[in-house]
Amino acid sequence: MKFSIGRTAFTKGLNTVARAISTKTTIPILTGLKLVANETGIVLTGSDADISIETTIRSDDPDNMLVIQSEGAIVLPARFFTDIIKKLPEDTITLEVGENFQTLITSGQSSFTINGLDANNYPHLPEIQTTDTIPLAGDLFKQIISQTVVAVSSQESRPILTGVHFVLSENNLLAVATDSHRLSQRKVTLENPINGTYNFVIPGKSLIELSRMIDDVKTEVTLSVTENQALFVIGNTLFYSRLLEGNYPDTTRLIPDSHDTQVAFDSPDLLAAIERASLLSHESRNNVVKITVDPDKKSVTIYGNSPDVGNVEEDLEPKTVEGNELEISFNPDYMKDALRSFGQATINIDFTSSLRPFTLTPTEESESFIQLITPIRTF
């Protein structure tokens, strides 16, 4: 195998597949990246068994400066190889595989020889045997991920909760995540109706890596789903993720359908106040912030307290406040994650009682996005 390629295009491809490569793997060959030269271009593959990424650097794109002299395949140590490519002196790189998989990399006056492995020993990528594809707008799907993945569980004791639950039917998409202390739910109407119904759970870690790959506003993403794998196609890149096994709990009954007290805020203003209050609450073992609502005085007050350091109290000016008096305590980190997911929107916070979960929704299209937080009992 021998080819020459532009360093910029090669580095971009290597960075893409590196997202799937882990140094902590029980399969040693997966610490490497697979490189295949064929008539269409260079195919790079990285995998950690949970997610696999395959990207093609096409020879018919002049920007890639790719010239393939002979075809072949090799597995190279990912970290060393990527570091070498990034630091080579010239814009053009030549790679040649010799006997015993020894690989010569040259650029200008610089040359490296590194030991490779037989590509035939690299695990095969999952086979997605379905012709049904679901087109998704990249910017919208990236937003859905960022709004829901904050609520996935980090505890492996209930593996199903470490993912986001997707339900797709006709032209509706529902995404839900919960760690049993908080919940995030997003509903979207798709432009194009889809055939059939899909119900699956994708690990949160997979979605975070996928989100980082959707960088252009106009990016189109197509999704294919089988029994235990999801495949996302983004341009010349394929992103495979395993699906979590098991039944996701029914979360619809967790969301209250009425409220006794409602407060409206601009999300950035409330976020700033919670961040100030949590400066002291983080010094306390409990990490609790308390909020009191007095509809008669149209006032909302936030308290943060640490016995060792001191306390903070701040009066806020809500846009509107109505209902009954209320005093409620919560984890400020959950509240900050929820508020950040609303961006610059104006939100309603609906309370039913001091011990019942409360919800945050945008004032416009409130049905489309809900964040739910369980309060903390402080007595």
Automatic annotation (TrEMBL):
Domain DNA polymerase III beta sliding clamp central: 137-250
A GO CC annotation given for this chain: cytoplasm
Keyword flag Signal: no
Domain of life, per lineage: Bacteria
Gene Ontology MF terms in the entry: 3'-5' exonuclease activity; DNA binding; DNA-directed DNA polymerase activity
Pfam families for the chain: DNA_pol3_beta, DNA_pol3_beta_2, DNA_pol3_beta_3
Keywords of the record: Cytoplasm, DNA replication, DNA-binding, DNA-directed DNA polymerase, Nucleotidyltransferase, Transferase
Location of the DNA polymerase III beta sliding clamp C-terminal domain: 253-377
UniProt subcellular location: Cytoplasm
Primary localization class, coarse: cytoplasm
Coiled-coil region(s): none
Gene3D superfamilies per UniProt: 3.70.10.10, DNA Polymerase III, subunit A, domain 2
Residue intervals of the DNA polymerase III beta sliding clamp N-terminal domain: 1-126
Entry keyword annotation includes Lipid biosynthesis: no
Family: Belongs to the beta sliding clamp family.
Biological role stated in the UniProt entry: Confers DNA tethering and processivity to DNA polymerases and other proteins. Acts as a clamp, forming a ring around DNA (a reaction catalyzed by the clamp-loading complex) which diffuses in an ATP-independent manner freely and bidirectionally along dsDNA. Initially characterized for its ability to contact the catalytic subunit of DNA polymerase III (Pol III), a complex, multichain enzyme responsible for most of the replicative synthesis in bacteria; Pol III exhibits 3'-5' exonuclease proofreading activity.
Summary of subunit composition and partner proteins: Forms a ring-shaped head-to-tail homodimer around DNA.
Name assigned to this protein: Beta sliding clamp
